[in-house]
């Protein structure tokens, strides 16, 4: 079942029984699969019972609850600016709701999705974990090597293991990378301490240990570092994620856990916000619409109030700088493009629904448009995007996707916790930072390259997407230009120039940050996850050779003292890719488990019928949703793309040729017309 496509080494074969035993426990619903294989399995079983017990008790009283049944105008008494600041800084532990109403639409903060455990998947709760954390002091400090020595510096690892080597992916476009970032930004966001905290001196020198502010984890640059050589910078700022202990969460005893401030669900929280207050701020309260700014006869996200905070590199406070459900909306131009596509899609749906059902009020139109938008996005995620990353056969075999027989799937399981796994968000998903390309092509309708823009010129400056015909040209670039191949090599635009201030030669290092974050979050070692995923424990570095090529195993020996010291994010990023996927064995294991939980633990998942929520789609509606592709959303919400290939995550090819938008299937919204009152004004949309 679980790893049907994974080629495990010879040594792993004898342990498959244990692997199944353990994996049965990861999915609590499948405990029936547990089979005692030998004494070691008893040990695992004991551990599993402890894990399950702690999982079922680890999310007690959270969540700031606001009932959906009683919509309130939360703007009363608040200025938009205050609300915006709240979105950024007001991090606290969520409170448990006193009761869950029978809501037919999902809540904004994710609470009450699971009726027995109302905080599961809600914003401001801890990430999930497959294995208990490993901290230096057992509670919160960064892990040390087995010997007690310091682990290798994150920046040294980045320089040795993640250089820039440009290899194009032969099959997939930059849109596959970019949609991946949209998903990542829908599933988690670390609760960050005050970003103004300085962990280095103003001129980039390390602080004395006794001067280091709490929550600091500075990234030090080794001798010979290219940035240090040019600028004499020896220290990059890095603040630790806020935890259950920092926030005095009820679950704060024992080892600490990191908190994510957005909902864990695939619910487009990056469009709709992760709590009711932010959602109110984003709405127009007119015909179900989200707020937009009109410029050049187009709709753009509303302007952020605090431009110097949201877009620190903007040239003026009037430069376009967006506000959305997620604070990262401005981070890079193509991310902003996809955020705009989903924003416009909401308003397009709201317009049609309001014409089809003139008797619907603002709230009904808003919620129905939101429900359809989320369903289309979930469909694209599971059926168009995910099989590229975790493989088609693997997706079917693990009940991630299902053969379409035109019915509901109804696989909701209230025992499955939908939480975003710390291992997924802090390691596996970040492996795809390797897909990033540093220069984004601007393409004409004929797919001629008209120019390109450098990523580090436009971090946090979305104004570039509004200039001239850039919106369409960037979109064509994203769906035509190949993404970088999934491997250990990473573009210098993010390892040397991330968030490069204007006029400066260097910026931050995303891969060093990934390694530092892995340790900040206390993830267990690569070796521990090998065992969890059914591979043999490595007793020597050579034991890694079943998954990691020789030249990289050799590099690991230069960095680490012991195979048990190898960080999860480092070991898994060097694995050989499993054929038919974009992941090595351990990443595939974590990725598959995450997306199983994200669907089976979501009571509002779009393929569920009404019994779970009282609010599923009708079968006709569901089968309409199943027609959507990302190409359709681009056709409907781009300016004048004219032609594109039907599957935009795949490169243009003989079987995926450019075609007119007229030939791309669309969702017929007539199935949402409540009663047929003769000819509707909306008929001209179809
Ligand atoms: C140009 C593209 C991208 C840039 C500039 C970027 C940058 C970043 C940055 C700065 C962080 C925070 C680092 C930290 O301090 O811990 C981050 C986190 C993350 N990134 Fe990316 N990223 C990009 C694309 C992607 C893609 C394609 C994926 C996945 C397919 C991804 C997945 C993630 C995840 C899961 C996190 C952690 C989220 C959280 O829990 O807070 N990113 N990225």
UniProtKB/TrEMBL annotation:
Keywords: Heme, Iron, Membrane, Metal-binding, Oxidoreductase, Peroxidase, Transmembrane, Transmembrane helix. InterPro entries: Haem_peroxidase_animal, Haem_peroxidase_sf, Haem_peroxidase_sf_animal. One of its GO terms (molecular function) is peroxidase activity. CDD domains: peroxinectin_like. The keyword Transmembrane helix applies. Heme b binds at residue 433. GO terms for biological process: response to oxidative stress. The chain crosses the membrane at residues 36-55. It comes from the Eukaryota. This is Peroxidase. It comes from Aquatica leii.
């Amino acid at each position: 079942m679980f790893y049907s496509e994974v080629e495990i080494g010879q040594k792993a074969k004898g342990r498959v029984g244990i692997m199944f035993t353990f994996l049965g426990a990861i999915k609590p619903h499948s405990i029936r699969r547990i089979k005692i294989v030998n004494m070691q399995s008893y040990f695992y079983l004991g551990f599993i019972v402890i894990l399950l017990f702690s999982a079922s008790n680890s999310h007690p009283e959270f969540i700031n609850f606001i009932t959906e049944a009683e919509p309130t105008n939360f703007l009363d008494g608040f200025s938009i600016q205050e609300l915006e600041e709240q979105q950024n800084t007001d991090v606290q532990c969520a409170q448990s709701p006193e009761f869950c109403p029978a809501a037919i639409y999902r809540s904004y903060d994710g609470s009450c999705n699971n009726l027995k455990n109302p905080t599961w998947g809600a914003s401001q709760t801890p990430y999930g974990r497959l294995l208990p954390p490993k901290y230096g002091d057992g509670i919160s400090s960064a892990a040390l090597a087995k010997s007690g020595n310091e682990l290798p510096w994150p920046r040294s690892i980045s320089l040795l293991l993640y250089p820039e080597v440009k290899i194009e992916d032969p099959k997939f476009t930059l849109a596959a990378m970019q949609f991946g970032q949209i998903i990542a930004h829908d599933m988690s966001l670390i609760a960050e301490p005050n970003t103004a905290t300085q962990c280095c001196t103003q001129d980039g020198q390390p602080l004395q240990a006794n001067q280091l502010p709490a929550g600091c984890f500075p990234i030090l640059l080794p001798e010979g570092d290219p940035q240090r050589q040019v600028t004499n910078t020896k220290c990059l700022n890095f603040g630790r994620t806020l935890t259950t202990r920092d926030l005095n969460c009820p679950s704060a005893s024992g080892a600490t856990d990191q908190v994510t401030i957005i909902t864990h669900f695939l619910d487009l929280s990056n469009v709709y916000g992760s709590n009711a207050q932010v959602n109110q701020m984003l709405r127009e309260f007119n015909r179900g619409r989200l707020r937009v700014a009109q410029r050049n006869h187009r709709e753009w996200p509303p302007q952020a109030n605090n431009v110097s905070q949201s877009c620190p590199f903007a040239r003026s406070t009037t430069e376009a700088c967006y506000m959305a459900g997620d604070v990262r909306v401005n981070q890079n131009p193509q991310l902003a493009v996809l955020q705009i596509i989903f924003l416009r899609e909401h308003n397009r749906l709201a317009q049609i629904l309001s014409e089809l059902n003139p008797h619907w009020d603002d709230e009904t139109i808003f919620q129905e448009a939101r429900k359809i938008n989320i369903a289309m996005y979930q469909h694209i995620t599971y059926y168009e995007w995910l099989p590229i990353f975790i493989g088609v056969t693997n997706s079917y075999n693990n009940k991630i996707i299902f053969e379409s027989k035109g019915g509901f799937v109804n696989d909701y399981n209230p025992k499955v916790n939908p939480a975003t796994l710390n291992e997924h968000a802090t390691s596996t998903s970040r492996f795809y930072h390797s897909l990033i390309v540093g220069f984004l092509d601007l393409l004409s309708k004929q797919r001629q390259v008209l120019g390109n823009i450098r990523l580090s010129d436009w971090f946090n400056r979305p104004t570039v997407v509004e200039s001239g015909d850039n919106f369409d040209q960037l979109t064509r670039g994203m769906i035509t230009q190949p993404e970088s191949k999934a491997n250990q090599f990473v573009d210098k635009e993010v390892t040397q120039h991330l968030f490069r201030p204007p006029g400066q030669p260097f910026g931050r290092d995303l891969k060093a940050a990934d390694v530092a974050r892995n340790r900040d979050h206390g993830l267990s070692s690569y070796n521990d996850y090998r065992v969890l995923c059914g591979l043999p424990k490595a007793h020597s570095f050579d034991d890694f050779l079943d998954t990691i090529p020789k030249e990289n195993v050799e590099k690991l020996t230069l960095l680490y003292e012991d195979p048990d010291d190898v960080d999860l994010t480092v070991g898994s990023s060097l694995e050989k890719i499993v054929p038919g996927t974009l992941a090595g064995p351990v990443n595939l294991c974590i990725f598959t488990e995450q997306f199983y939980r994200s669907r089976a633990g979501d009571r509002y998942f779009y393929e569920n019928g009404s019994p779970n929520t009282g609010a599923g789609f009708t079968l006709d509606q569901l089968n309409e949703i199943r027609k959507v592709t990302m190409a359709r959303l681009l056709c409907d919400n781009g300016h004048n793309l004219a032609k594109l290939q039907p599957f935009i995550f795949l490169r243009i090819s003989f079987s995926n040729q450019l075609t007119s938008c007229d030939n791309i299937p669309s969702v017929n919204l007539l199935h949402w017309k409540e009663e047929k009152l003769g000819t509707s004004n909306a008929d001209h949309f179809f």
